[in-house]
Amino acid sequence: MVEVHHETIFFSGRVQGVGFRYTTLQVAKEFEVAGYVQNLTDGRVQVEVEGRRSEIDAFVAAVEERMHGHIRKTERSGGKRTGQFSGFEIR
Fold first, then answer.
1. How many separate domains does the chain show?
2. Is 14 one of the catalytic residues?
3. Which of 14, 39, 66, 76 is catalytic?
4. pTM of the model
5. How many CB atoms sit inside 10 A of residue 58's CB?
6. pLDDT tens column, 22-72
7. Could you give the CA distance from residue 44 to residue 2 in angstroms, rounded to a whole number?
8. Residues 68, 61: Cα–Cα separation, whole Å
9. Which of 24, 39, 41, 84 sits between 20 and 30 A of 71, alpha carbons compared?
10. Residue 10 is part of which domain span?
C-alpha cells in the first residue's frame, strides 16, 4: 500500500445551500485527489481528501477561489496515511 497525504478540511460560512458540494466535486476533477465532501449538521462542510500535498494545496486554493464569497473560515489538518479513497464523491 502506498502512503499519501490526507487532510480533513472544514469550511465555515455560508457554505450550505449554495452549490458548495457540487462545486467542490467539479474542482476535484481538475486535480489528482480522491475523497469526499459532505454537509455537517452544524452548518459547516467537511472535505476528506488524499493525494500529493501539492495537489491538495492547489485543490483547496481552487475551492476557496471559486467559493470566495461564501467561505468565512477554512480549517485544515492532516498527515500521511495509506490511501483509502478511489475517486471523489458527494456524501
1. 1
2. no
3. 39
4. 0.94
5. 17
6. 999 999 999 999 999 999 999 999 999 999 999 999 999 999 999 999 999
7. 31
8. 10
9. 84
10. 3-90
Q: Which residues contact 21 (CB under 8 A, 6 or more apart)?
A: 37, 38, 39, 45, 90
CB 79 within 8 A of CB 2: no
Residue 33 forms beta bridges with which residues? 51
How many beta carbons lie within 10 A of that of residue 30, not counting itself?
11
Q: Find the CATH number of the domain harbouring 25.
A: 3.30.70.100
Predicted local distance difference test score (pLDDT) of residue 15: 97
Tell me the three cell numbers of residue 1: 500500500
The yes-or-no answer on residue 21 being catalytic is yes
Grid coordinates of 73: 473560515
